Amino acid sequence: MRRPRIVIVGAGFAGFHAARTLCKIARDRAEVVVVNTTDFFLYLPLLPEVAVGLIDPRRVTVSLPATLPNVRLILGEVDAVDFDGRRVRYHDAEDDPGEIGYDRLILAAGSVNKLLPVPGANEHAHGFRGLPEALYLRDHIVRQFELADATDDPAERAARTTFVVVGAGYTGTEVAAHGVLLSDILYRRHPRLAGHRPPGCWSTWPTGSCPNSTSACPRPRPGC
Ligand SMILES: Cc1cc2nc3c(=O)[nH]c(=O)nc-3n(C[C@H](O)[C@H](O)[C@H](O)COP(=O)(O)OP(=O)(O)OC[C@H]3O[C@@H](n4cnc5c(N)ncnc54)[C@H](O)[C@@H]3O)c2cc1C
């Protein structure tokens, strides 16, 4: 008799734990399939540490094939679900279309960056939900310090070394706190900037009370 197939879309916190638990409970009585965009589970709470270089990116990823050996992994992005026909459609890692049928479906594709009506954020701010974004942020900060070191214009120097995090929740606060640590290292690396540290060079603004247009500006006013 054919085993029932459980398809899980997404292998973040919800999908990963669902797959692991179902494998334990169902043993060989069900086929568990995970469709995920990456072959790893990403431990998001440590992303701020990755962004400032405190932790190697490898340390916040957990290999799906290694930790879920009895789960069939499909590397791909789901773009449609046919609920009547019980089929999930996706594009695989090489962008080829594919589909798979299911008896039970778990949708655990997670959340996306929330774009609140903060002036400038859509145009200028960078999201913070994945490894590429965390690594980009670190490179961006390092580059801004190098450019600040290269100029003699005090206003440009201050702007380039001023960073504003939109959102003062847990993640935003942690990004800002770790940003201060990275800035300390970069000031030591660029002694020419030592006496020019702008006040409030790392700040968080609670979304919803963000004043006018400087919240996500790549070159905000010094001290903002
Ligand atoms: C930087 C950061 C730090 C955080 N720190 C904490 C913390 O300390 N404590 C806390 O409780 N919460 C924290 N959170 C929130 C927490 O990470 C989320 O609540 C949690 O990740 C939600 O889990 P999830 O499984 O629903 O989604 P996710 O963990 O986002 O997983 C979704 C998965 O689905 C995949 N996926 C998405 N779309 C598709 C698709 N179309 N097809 C296939 N796969 C898809 C994604 O690649 C991902 O693997 C943090 C979030 C961030 C961004």
Highlighted features:
FAD/NAD(P)-binding domain, two-stranded antiparallel ribbon, 2 domains, 7 helices, binds flavin-adenine dinucleotide, disordered C terminus, six-stranded mixed β-sheet, alpha/beta, 224 residues, single chain
Could you give a quick summary of the protein structure above?
This protein is α/β, with parallel strands linked by helices and 224 residues long. It contains seven helices and ten strands.
CATH topology of the largest domain: FAD/NAD(P)-binding domain
- Give the % helix: 25-40%
Sequence stretches where pLDDT stays below 50 over 5 or more residues: 209-224
Could you say which small molecules are bound to this protein? flavin-adenine dinucleotide
Describe the structure in your own words.
The chain contains seven helices and ten strands. The protein has helices spanning 13-26, 47-51, 64-67, 121-124, 131-150, 154-160, 170-189, and strands at 5-9, 31-36, 40-42, 61-63, 72-82, 87-92, 97-101, 104-107, 163-166, 202-205. A hairpin with a 4-residue loop joins β6 and β7 (97-101). The strands form three sheets. It has a six-stranded mixed beta sheet. The chain has two domains: 5-45 and 60-107, FAD/NAD(P)-binding domain (3-Layer(bba) Sandwich), CATH 3.50.50.60; 121-205, no CATH class. The model is unreliable at 209-224 (pLDDT under 50). It is α/β, with parallel strands linked by helices and 224 residues long. Bound molecules: flavin-adenine dinucleotide. Flavin-adenine dinucleotide binds at residues 9-15, 35-38, 44-45, 47, 77-78, 108-111, 128-129, 170-171.
